[in-house]
């Protein structure tokens, strides 16, 4: 009798849950980094509501869905004095665990639970790492009529890949 009760409870649990809801949940942590760091960060959802403000680097927890069978979409805007503003889109795509409902969650998981919780979606990219471009500077013109420009940056603001290519041109 006890084994039958446990079997019924296990079957009911599987029948009343969605695979993606169990494995992934309805929210997702997104890491946001910028070069240079300490950029102002604001996140707006697809309804136009500003849902987070802060400074990079940051990790924020965002909802995967925006409603029944509606993936969420976010605009991540990074701003810093002396640099151009940059906006990156983070959007919901189909979560692979949602397909697990064919085996475990059944019709309730496919048609109700995962779509209702938003767990049927994964947010991509899961990490936003972006370099901010210096604000537009007017270029000078040399004697040949070619544009010339000089950008001055602190060493800690230079991306690591560029630092690896850098060469020391004199002793200080």
Question: Which descriptors apply to this entry?
Answer:
Immunoglobulin-like, about 170 residues, alpha+beta, three-stranded mixed sheet, five-stranded antiparallel sheet
CATH-defined topology: Immunoglobulin-like
What is the SS-derived class?
alpha+beta
List the uncertain runs.
Answer: none
- How do the strands line up in the largest sheet? 3-2-7-8-9
Largest sheet: 5 strands, antiparallel
Quickly describe the structure.
By secondary structure, the protein is an alpha+beta fold. Helices cover 22% and strands 35% of the residues.
List the helices and strands and how they pair.
Layout: H1 2-15, H2 19-23, E1 27-35, E2 40-45, E3 50-55, E4 58-63, E5 65-67, E6 70-71, E7 73-79, E8 86-94, H3 106-117, E9 121-124, E10 127-131, E11 140-141, E12 147-148, H4 160-165
Parallel strand pairs: 1-10
Antiparallel strand pairs: 1-4, 2-3, 2-7, 5-6, 7-8, 8-9, 11-12
Write structural notes for this entry:
The chain is an alpha+beta fold and 172 residues long. Helices cover 22% and strands 35% of the residues. The chain has one domain (2-131): Immunoglobulin-like (Sandwich). The model has no long low-confidence stretch (mean pLDDT 83).
């Amino acid at each position: 009798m006890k084994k039958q009760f446990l079997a019924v409870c296990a079957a009911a649990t599987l029948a009343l849950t969605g695979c993606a809801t169990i494995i992934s949940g309805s929210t997702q942590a997104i890491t946001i980094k910028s070069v240079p760091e300490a950029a102002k960060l604001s996140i707006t959802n697809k309804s136009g509501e500003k849902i987070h403000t802060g400074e990079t680097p940051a990790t924020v927890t965002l909802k995967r869905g925006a409603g029944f069978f509606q993936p969420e979409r976010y605009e991540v805007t990074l701003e810093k004095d002396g640099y151009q503003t940059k906006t990156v889109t983070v959007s919901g795509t189909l979560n692979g665990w949602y397909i697990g409902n064919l085996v475990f969650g059944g019709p309730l998981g496919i048609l109700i639970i995962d779509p209702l919780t938003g767990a049927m979606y994964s947010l991509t990219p899961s990490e936003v790492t972006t370099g901010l471009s210096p604000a537009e500077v007017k270029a000078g013109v040399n004697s040949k009529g070619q544009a010339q420009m000089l950008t001055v940056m602190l060493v800690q603001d230079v991306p690591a890949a560029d630092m690896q290519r850098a060469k020391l041109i004199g002793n200080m």
